[in-house]
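The material for today's practical consists of a large collection of protein records. A record pairs a protein's sequence with a compact description of its fold. Instead of coordinates, the fold is spelled out as a row of discrete tokens. We will come back to this pairing of sequence and fold again and again. Here is such a record, shown just as it appears in the course material.
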Amino acid sequence: MKKASFTLSVILILLSNTGLIAQHPNSGCEPLDLESVTYIEEENVYDLGFDTDDYLPLDFDPYEYYVNLDAIKYLEEDEAVDYSAYLPHDFNPYAYPTYFRSIDYVDPSDKIDLNFDTVENLPEGFDPFQKVSISENLSL
């Protein structure tokens, strides 16, 4: 009995120590200094199929501004269109709607009559619900 309780107590001590070590997994490690990491920078060389030096001036610098964009004069439209003649006298575009029953919603179950007879434009015996395979629809 004493041997079983001793073995059980040793196992419990080992498990508790393992749990304590697991709470601090990096306790024996140094913090990583990102400045000490050496990065490999690969320079990409693009082959365009032709030599760009043949087409650029001798003193060409891609980072130099050759055109002063501030010197370009842009046309500004000062002419504003007045739409007040087409709007009601007391129109306020920022006002909230006050009477919600005046808003008309389209109900998908409503039947809409377009005053267009499709029978005149469809072939005789046309059934939109009949499934027709492509091979039956071909005429030789």
About this structure: The chain is about 20% helix and 0% strand.
